[in-house]
Amino acid sequence: MADEETRLVYGDWEAGFAPALGGALLYLRRRGVDMLRPAPSLEAARQDPRNAACFPCVPYFGRLARGLDFAGRHFDLAPTLPACDPDNALHGEGWVSPWRIVETTPASLTARFDYVPQRGRFPFPYRAEQRLALDASGLAATLSIENVGPAPMPAGLGLHPYFRRTPKTRLAFSAETFWAPPDGPLAPPPDALGTEAATLPAATRDDTYAGFGGRATVEDGTRRVVLASDAPALHLFAPAGENFFCLEPVTHLPGAFAQGANGPGARSLSPGERLSLDMVIGGD
Length: 284
Prior knowledge:
Layout: E1 6-10, E2 13-18, E3 24-30, E4 33-34, H1 42-47, E5 54-57, E6 63-64, E7 68-70, E8 73-75, E9 89-90, E10 100-105, E11 108-115, E12 126-135, E13 138-147, E14 153-155, E15 158-164, E16 170-173, E17 177-179, E18 198-199, E19 205-210, E20 215-219, E21 224-229, E22 233-238, E23 244-250, E24 267-269, E25 274-283
Antiparallel strand pairs: 1-2, 2-3, 3-4, 5-15, 6-9, 7-8, 10-11, 11-12, 12-13, 13-25, 14-24, 15-23, 16-18, 16-20, 17-19, 19-22, 20-21, 21-25, 22-23
């Protein structure tokens, strides 16, 4: 089947990838221990991409409430995944579209998604690629987008890994500013998160930290997982009462294509121009 798992192995590490299921990572394990919250099964990831261990957000991250405005034009966009958000386009097309593997080795692969504009969807053509590679330190992922059209296009990227959450989970990372969607101002982090190791609050968090220091550590007493990225911002999604949370390296504030002086914004790519995002997940 086209959506069967492609397995990567290197030393103590193994990963499962499902190209046809939104280019989703199904699991990442070290010595048989899950370093991310794994997909329960291929069928679960097929039914809902949010069941994956990680998925790509391309050509933007977050929701585009009320559609897209770019270069003096407005584009109405249909909901991407109505089960998640029945009103707005969310996280682009990559996570709900099939990808194809164009290169593979026992420990690495490159997958590609060529997008042709469709009515009610993102109005610009692009090519997205994911490069996944295991080595002794863990998983290195690179997500990129190229403008293959004849005119400039807005573009942003995000990677959306899910982490296990227990009452003992502690999170450490650094950031310069904090932003609570949809309209809050950029401000200093309101609590210990973003400044020192801390437990996750009981209430839901769905916030972005700009000026991300490039490294986040997750510990729960049984495992330590380290995320490193060149992303300028890190989005934290920690729903109350769940056994998971997400740390998402992103190139821009959620759904924002023009933040100007207020913070990181998505790029406008000229024809043939590329944008990329790197992430490494390791640990012990």
